[in-house]
Amino acid sequence: xxxxxxxxxxxxxxxxxxxxxxxxxxxxxxxxxxxxxxxxxxxxxxxxxxxxxxxxxxxxxxxxxxxxxxxxxxxxxxxxxxxxxxxxxxxxxxxxxxxxxxxxxxxxxxxxxxxxxxxxxxxxxxxxxxxxxxxxxxxxxxxxxxxxxxxxxxxxxxxxxxxxxxxxxxxxxxxxxxxxxxxxxxxxxxxxxxxxxxxxxxxxxxxxxxxxxxxxxxxxxxxxxxxxxxxxxxxxxxxxxxxxxxxxxxxxxxxxxxxxxxxxxxxxxxxxxxxxxxxxxxxxxxxxxxxxxxxxxxxxxxxxxxxxxxxxxxxxxxxxxxxxxxxxxxxxxxxxxxxxxxxxxxxxxxxxxxxxxxxxxxxxxxxxx
Length: 369
Ligand code: NAD
Ligand code: AHE
Ligand code: ZN
Fold this sequence. Notes:
Its cofactor is Zn(2+). InterPro entries: ADH-like_C (IPR013149), ADH-like_N (IPR013154), ADH_3 (IPR014183), ADH_Zn_CS (IPR002328), ER (IPR020843), GroES-like_sf (IPR011032), NAD(P)-bd_dom_sf (IPR036291). This is S-(hydroxymethyl)glutathione dehydrogenase. It contains twelve helices and 17 strands. The protein is an alpha/beta fold. The strands form three sheets. Strands 3, 4, 5, 8, 9, 16 and 17 form a seven-stranded mixed β-sheet that branches. It has a six-stranded parallel β-sheet with strand order 12-11-10-13-14-15, with helices on both faces. Helix 5 (about 170-180) packs across helix 6. The chain is globular and about 60 Å long. The structure holds nicotinamide-adenine-dinucleotide, ligand AHE and zinc ion. Ligand AHE binds near residues 51, 110, 313 and 314.
């Protein structure tokens, strides 16, 4: 079938809106009409050419919501008309990782997903007879896409697509990192580096669990107001403080953070996030994605003296299990998504969404088909 998609033909070039061909679902696969998709910093990162797994031409986008249009042979858990959120971290419930109960990083289709193809090793998308790659197993910058059954969370039908699409990445990543990865307890002091689409969700997660101080760190002063509305109690702009950020935060928190979260993707701020943690127990969670070839460093003494460095993908959430619950939290008014969606655009204007993020003018732009 013909579909409308924003195609990334080359790294560093704007997306091009084209009519692309999409094959129907093979066994175990599902055809989904995407109704809305957010633009995450990771899409921008991959388009920049910094992602070692970034391959082109591809259809980017991994923060979507839509409706099942057709199911392939053998699909049992989904039916035509179901509302779904695509999962770049699937949940097969059978692989070593899923059954370990120690991680959300399902490995059943990771190898092919990382290469931009479906589990059978081929792409369903093509343009002028040549294959176009999938992205993070989702490709939500197309009004129709095909996904494996295990990479779709079934969600309630009364939830608005143009808001819950954000649960497909940013909301779950931020809130999940607090709840599932770190297990932040009431009364903890939390420091969040980067107050964009992910960091603000870390803030609302920290507030939800009853954190004490919630310190936000960002070089963009315009982030302060919204962050305070979401629960930030103290703002640190590294460009405005005298001396070093780590010392400043350690003093502000009376000894260091119980938990810190890096939501930027910068290896220098990752080090600061670790080193501003409390001696003996502070835990730092890396969420930000850093470019090809970059490495983190610190003095081992930081770990010897009890700080813990860990990372989080998709907030540690198990997609098919947890995403429907997070949609319920939104529908029950427990979390705020609406105020983080600063721009809504038609597909034709998707490059504006990338520009707004690049310029620090948006939190989330959502494309509505
Ligand atoms: P964003 O662009 O909306 O936000 C980034 C924020 O960082 C901005 O407010 C910016 O002003 C701030 N910033 C930039 N440089 C800074 C610095 N040196 N010091 C302090 N603040 C700085 O991006 P986002 O969508 O929130 O994504 C954030 C990061 O998280 C990206 O690296 C993205 O790829 C990654 N990410 C990871 C996961 C995961 O599962 N691990 C999921 C989604 C996004
Ligand atoms: N492809 C990159 C890594 C990118 C990355 O870390 N992706 C995150 C999700 S970012 C969502 O906005 C993730 O879940 N990673 C786990 C995984 O298995 O991909 C690289 O460096 O190769
Ligand atoms: Zn994302």
